[in-house]
Sequence to fold (202 residues):
Amino acid sequence: MVNVERPVTIAVAGTHSTGKSTFLARLAHALRRDGVEVATVADLAEQAHRTGLPILHSHSYPSTLWIMTRGISEELAAWPHADVLLVDRPVPDALGYYLAALAYRDETPDPAAIEHLSALAHHHSTHYDLVLRTVLDGTIPIGEGRDRNHRYRRLADHHVERVLLQLGIGHELLPADQHDPTLERVADFTLDRLARTSSVGP
Fold:
């Protein structure tokens, strides 16, 4: 891994409607109260959809590659401007969604395509200081206006977890009933990482 100056980067992966965006919004608010300059990279699926690319159970190799590379570009663009970068859906997340879509459609993955996407996800993930993965709780209602395909949602939950494990991307779980204590712990982790970074001389 090449050593580069970048913000402390916290990423949250997981299937949709599991509280990722809400958790990150609360974390950003807590950090900004402490005077931390925070940048965010939001879920890019809706942007992909507006360009005409398929998403969710219709995900394709081009739409997955677009989301991954667009996410990387937006993260890099934020590096010079923030102390902390919060990423809603890190790069490996898109690969999990694509594999879930293939499983949903009962299609066989193209090994070359998966190898390419996996390498991209693996290498870029070295820039994340902490990755959290939400845990699907089927008893919590899906938010208004969100996709209600429960089968695909479960497949996405499974495949995001599988991608992180297969690529050796260390992560911590973010269960629905543990957001409050996790928020406090992640904020402390981030502030401690910032303090240690600032104490390192040239």
